[in-house]
């Protein structure tokens, strides 16, 4: 009878994969990921069928972590600007607290290795945000563009804000507000 899988080992492998992918992108080797986690490479394949399966799981793991930061008190009934500011600030705070996760998620997203089904599953927790953005476009608040395009603009400004705040923590609040102001102006009519 096979031994049950250890949640601790799985967690260690995902943490190791996060750090390694953040540093090396999708060129990270399974041997390097396993070594960093302190397990044999064969153990990695006990938990993840392949390197590609690991990347799909890692992407979902990181999206779920981001959702835990953004969605619990998402202000569903607030105005568009307040909801967008909530998302922007929570994303920036998550990125500041999870540099490796942010870099790994960015590298995985841009790699071409993440399947469409995985991307769709990763967006599941954020459907309220997508719906809000679609409504704001329909109502003429946001520019008439695809949600993916608008999200990309917001994400890039948020990433710039994260990098600046990380280097200048003494003015974090001012630049968090300034970053959102710039993002809002970039996507509104």
From TrEMBL:
This is TetR family transcriptional regulator. InterPro entries: DNA-bd_HTH_TetR-type_CS, Homeodomain-like_sf, HTH-type_TetR-like_transc_reg, HTH_TetR. GO terms for molecular function: DNA binding. Keywords: DNA-binding, Repressor, Transcription, Transcription regulation. PANTHER family: HTH-TYPE TRANSCRIPTIONAL REGULATOR RUTR, REGULATORY PROTEIN. Residues 29-48 bind DNA. The keyword Nucleotide-binding does not apply. Residues 7-66 form the HTH tetR-type domain.
